[in-house]
Input
Amino acid sequence: MRRTLITIVFISLVSATAATASWARSTDTQLGLVGYAVPREALGEIIKTWQKTPDGSGVDVTQSYGASGDQARAVANGLPADIVQLSTGLDVDYLVEKGLVDKNWDKQSSKGIVTTSLVVFAVRPGNPKKIKTWNDLVKPGVEVITANPFTSGAAKWNILAAYGAQRKLGKTDKQGRAYAQSLFRNVVVQAKSGRDATNAFLSGKGDVLLTYENEALLSRKNGQDIQFTIPKQSMLIEAPIAVLKTSKNRDKANQFIRFTKSDTAQRIWAEWGFRPVSKKIYREYRAKFPARPTVFRISDPIFGGWAVANRKWFDPKGSIMVDIEKSIGGPTG
Output
């Protein structure tokens, strides 16, 4: 059987302290998948399932996972890839600017999004600090864990969710910024990736973890006694997927992307805690993914899209988070 060489790179606002790789070797080909840390388990199962289909038969895939920002820069600096799945559209647009991804990547099915999730609060058993609302996170004595917004997409989602919740509660832009600063005064760990933040929380640090709903569900699936609450105001995390223009296997790469949005793959995503983009599959898992009164997107006018939000909040040369981090002695890049 003739085997196809295809390098697949997955990146997310969700990442690891350093890119960790699991390299599988065959006598014929070595294929690469580089990803953000959070969807590692789900992707592993999806790849194996795809390899059993006519399209995926003969395609070997190696996998590497790390912090989203680090992985995006690695691709821009020459790391071979055919597909990128990132935690934010911002990272895809970064590769568009580098000439590596088509500017119309978000015109594909489901606007280029392969899964969604919500920002949630993971808490200690019994929720001893009674954490249910965003206001609870800024109370004295509450220790918060999140990721570093200058390396992790997960952290960016968390921060924008915190700000957006305040705006949806009727607060002004100034009050929303002030809330973000109060929140980070309570942050005791800023991990490099979303997965590292989860591991820090599971090791006993902090009272509450700002994380993805799917990350909390994965911890439960793995037997961890983790409880979480979904605030009434939360942000929809949208994870995009796109083919690189430099891919020599674009047809095969597009076949894989189509598979990630198929009923089969969407059920796998759901089993691993990701909200399906397929309305049909979402209805099947409705009980697992409860609705909340107020769910907002990065496209909401209060953010203005990723390009505007990133400049305002996360530009390492000067932004709201740079000022906040300086005020608390945290990382600024």
User: Anything to note?
Assistant: Residues 8-115+237-284 form a domain with the D-Maltodextrin-Binding Protein; domain 2 fold (CATH 3.40.190.10).
